[in-house]
Amino acid sequence: MRFLHTGDWHVGKQLRGRSRIAEQVAVLDEILDIAVREKVDYVLVAGDVFDSPTPPADAEHAVLSFFAGLIRHEIGAVVIGGNHDHPRRLSALRQLLDPLRIFIRPEPCAPDDGALIALEKGKEKAVIAALPWIPDRLLVDSAKMMLPEDRWYAEYAEVAGGFCSGFASCFEKNSINVLMSHMFIQGAETTASERAIHTSAPFAVSGAYLPASANYVALGHLHRPQLVPAPAPAYFCGSTLQLDFGEVEQVKRVVLIEARAGKPSHVESIPLMQGRRLRDVRGTLAELEGRALEFGDDYLRVTVETERAEAGISTQVRELLPNAIDIRVEARVVEETGVAEAMEKLASLQPADLFAEYYRQSQKSEIPQELLDLFRKLHGDTRHETRTSGA
């Protein structure tokens, strides 16, 4: 059988307030095209379908359109929930899509209650063991379903690892065996775009728990595509777009797997071309102006090199580079004495005086008295307002 491993779509996620739904639709269309072109039997979606438990309507439309495309081309799918997905939202889709060979498992369940999904193609059989994200608040309840009583209150990583190794007893020698899970594997490389709390030590499951009898282990949760040390081929497919500047230079991909019972799987990475790049750039204002056309529609994190820090630099950068998302200023010359004196002066100023100084530096002119009076009035300080005639 041929499988296509993807996940961490995070449909609905924005970049510093900018919608990326058009990019998310484009990359899902690209994944569908790859599945059709490569004659895939099933797409494996390893969690974090949405970025939020309450995704906007256009995000739901994008995901359902992708599943509709799979159904139209008679391609099946197995989908598990991630830590960003709302189990009840995915459960509602499960009732609708399971009969159409889009098998959705939103939260951990027992092997005889849906965790094991049996697939067939001609004489070939496959067993997909589905282990969605295990919320720590549900850890004990999940453990009661699958582990002996004396292990119900073990640490998170041990219990989650026990689930993985426990699936080995459910695998069959004459079938293709795949474990799909949304979890953090110890030693894997993280990026800044993941929730730090869910990639910390208590959540790190040892790769040794992954069953050696699996033909393939399809992992989701980490956004960097990577192979992890394990007894069986175990891959994080990674996110489908560069989600934040922690993923600059990462080439996004899907993983194509050709599997046969009792034989090693053939694994191939297929790069994804859709989506706008995220890029780090630096230079002086003049250098950035000269390179402006080079950046195309890339989203930019800009470091501006200047002799001295000046007000209004960020505004000038945004005029030159409308796609600048994050702007930082690095001053080459730092006059310690001058800085100390300036800080001492600022500390002694009243709010209205600070506002006047800001206006003077940003606008290169003195603040109009009427504006200064209005600021003082809004701030609750009317002691220095200009007196009108007759007062």
Describe the structure.
With 391 residues, the protein is an alpha/beta fold. It has three domains: 270 residues, Metallo-dependent phosphatases (Purple Acid Phosphatase, chain A, domain 2, 4-Layer Sandwich), CATH 3.60.21; 58 residues, no CATH class; 44 residues, no CATH class. It contains ten helices and 17 strands. Strands 4-3-2-1-13-14 form a six-stranded mixed beta sheet. The protein has a six-stranded mixed beta sheet with strand order 5-6-7-10-12-11, with no helix packed on it. A hairpin with a 6-residue loop joins strand 11 and strand 12. The protein is elongated, with a radius of gyration of 27 Å. The C terminus is likely disordered.
Question: What labels would you give this structure?
Answer:
alpha/beta; Purple Acid Phosphatase, chain A, domain 2; 6-stranded mixed β-sheet; 10 helices
CATH architectural category of the largest domain: 4-Layer Sandwich
Q: What is the H/E string?
A: EHEHEHEEEHHEEEEEEEEEHEHEHHH
Number of separate domains: 3
Give the class from helix and strand content and strand pairing: alpha/beta
Number of helices: 10
* Distance between the amino and carboxyl termini: 90 Å
